[in-house]
Amino acid sequence: MDGRLDRFSGPGEGDAILLRGLLFYAHHGVRSEERVLGQRFRVDVELFLSLREAGKSDRLRDTLDYGEVYAVIAEVVERTQARLLEKIADTIALSVLRRFPKVEGLVVVLEKLSPPIPGAMESVGVRIVRTRQDFASELADSAASALPVAPSGDEIVPSEPLGRS
């Protein structure tokens, strides 16, 4: 690690939620053929947050809904287009931090499976480590547009757009 996540190593602060082997077909790459034809990608994420309360309460509102995390990642990978894996990974990190205030930091591993590179290889990829501090200005800008948590904390209720009756 690069030291930015050292504070997560204390007692009770080393908790993490893991999502491994998320598979997607998407249209990213430097070459135009990659963006037109598409290819397979694999994502692993490690989300740093306290799981202490969820361990005691056994309530979903005290942790994260893994399906919602998957949906945020899928939205980025499948519905955006970028040339570089670095850009996609960074966008995943920002999107997760925007959507889930409990997450203090995360590791994103993004791999392009069977890349169009001469030679035999399973994948190429990037691994990034990000914290809320890395996106302080972006998160502050988006705070007003965040979706509110329902009173039970177990589901998300979309905001009504202003000016609509």
UniProtKB/TrEMBL annotation:
Similarity comment text for this entry: Belongs to the DHNA family.
The keyword Lyase appears for this protein: yes
InterPro entries: Dihydroneopterin_aldolase, FolB_dom, GTP-CH-I_C/QueF
Keywords from the UniProt entry: Folate biosynthesis, Lyase
NCBIfam families membership: folB (TIGR00525), folB_dom (TIGR00526)
Protein known as: 7,8-dihydroneopterin aldolase
An example molecular function term from Gene Ontology annotations: dihydroneopterin aldolase activity
Domain of life: Bacteria
A family per Pfam: FolB
Region feature Disordered, mapped onto this chain: 145-165
Pathway connected to this protein: Cofactor biosynthesis; tetrahydrofolate biosynthesis; 2-amino-4-hydroxy-6-hydroxymethyl-7,8-dihydropteridine diphosphate from 7,8-dihydroneopterin triphosphate: step 3/4
EC main group: lyase
EC number assigned by the record: 4.1.2.25
Reaction(s) this enzyme catalyzes, per UniProt: 7,8-dihydroneopterin = 6-hydroxymethyl-7,8-dihydropterin + glycolaldehyde
Protein purpose: Catalyzes the conversion of 7,8-dihydroneopterin to 6-hydroxymethyl-7,8-dihydropterin.
Domain Dihydroneopterin aldolase/epimerase: 17-130
Any single GO CC term annotated in Swiss-Prot or TrEMBL for this entry: cytoplasm
Annotated organism of origin: Brockia lithotrophica
